[in-house]
Every structure is written in C-alpha cells, then in structure tokens.
Amino acid sequence: MKPTNTLRSMWAAEALHGLANRTGADIPDDAVTDLIANIGHFCDATGIDFLHLAARGIGHWKLEQSEPESIGPAPYVTIEVSPC
Asked: Can you give the residue ranges of every domain in the chain?
C-alpha cells in the first residue's frame, strides 16, 4: 500500500508533536520552523548536504500535491540563501 498525503501529514504531525513536547514550540508555526532548522543542524553535524535534500524534499512535496501516488520525476527546485 502506497502512502497517501493524509498519512504523510500524520507522520509529520508525530515529528512536530515530539519536538513541541521537548522544546515547548507552538504547533504548527514554531515547531515546523524549528524542525526544519534542527534537521539542518543534524545534516551539518553528519556531513549531509541539507540544502540539496531540502530542495529534493520540496520537489517531492510539490509533485505529491497533484499526484499523491507518483514516484517521479519531481520538479527541480533550487534554494538560494543570502548571506546574513
């Protein structure tokens, strides 16, 4: 059985609730932002290319919006980060 977008949303909610329980972040806004940033920190610590995977994930999300059971190809996404 392939996952539905509803099921994918429930998986994300589990992660957000876990983070909120540990940090007190408000769901959804602060918890979503914090989870994204924390995944970036995890990638930095483990040598994973966060921006590449974030762009890939956004492409998958966009494809699944219109074709929930599709396996690709996902749209190409670029992320530009300006210096602080």
From this structure: 5-66
